[in-house]
Amino acid sequence: MAEFSHIEDDEVSMVDISDKDDVRREATASGRIDLEPSTVEAIRDGETVKGNVLSTARIAAIQAVKRTWDDIPLCHQIPISDVTVDFELGDAHVAGRVTVRSTGKTGVEMEALNGVSRALLTIWDMVKAAEKDEDGQYPRTAIGDIAVEAKLKEPLEE
């Protein structure tokens, strides 16, 4: 059975990273939201009711990255050096990718995952009126495939 550094005898605690060295860290997470083709076209053409969907989702991702420690109980508050947010529009989906960089004692995977998740949730919020069917349901809209694509950890150059 795997050992969890956050749990000991049913007690939950933040991992002590005091003795770890600072290293350069980077993580990329991605995910997608499936939408009606007409909704993706409206995003592409800048014709959504609430405004620029991808610009708003980009800001939401960056905010989420910077506040991951506040969203996920046992995450450390870490210095974020850079956040890159990219989107790709398909015929019936928007794919998002968030890359986070930091120099510190703990990784940035959760920050990247939090960022891409918030970006996709923001897209849903901004286009939900267009996605609802006659019963007010979302038959096609779905967020999925959220994963860490890559993780980098390298020593600082001296």
In words, what does this structure look like?
With 158 residues, the chain is α+β, with helices and mostly antiparallel strands. It has one domain: Molybdopterin cofactor biosynthesis C (MoaC) domain (Alpha-Beta Plaits, 2-Layer Sandwich), CATH 3.30.70. Helices cover 32% and strands 32% of the residues. The protein has four helices and six strands; from the N terminus they run βββαααββαβ. It has a four-stranded antiparallel beta sheet. It has a two-stranded antiparallel sheet with strand order 1-2. Helix 2 (53-66) runs antiparallel to helix 4. It is elongated. The mean pLDDT is 93.
Gist of the model:
By secondary structure, the protein is α+β, with helices and mostly antiparallel strands.
How far apart lie the N and C ends? 39 Å
Mean pLDDT: 93
* Annotated CATH topology: Alpha-Beta Plaits
Largest sheet: 4 strands, antiparallel
Determine Rg (CA atoms, Å). Answer: 18 Å
State the secondary-structure class: alpha+beta
Give the CATH H-level superfamily: Molybdopterin cofactor biosynthesis C (MoaC) domain
Q: Could you outline the blueprint of secondary structure elements for this entry?
A:
Elements: E1 7-8, E2 11-12, E3 23-34, H1 37-45, H2 53-66, H3 68-71, E4 82-89, E5 93-104, H4 109-131, E6 142-155
Antiparallel strand pairs: 1-2, 3-5, 3-6, 4-5
Helix pairs in contact: 2-4
Kindly list the characteristics that best describe this protein.
two-stranded antiparallel sheet, four-stranded antiparallel beta sheet, 4 helices, elongated, alpha+beta, Alpha-Beta Plaits, 32% helix
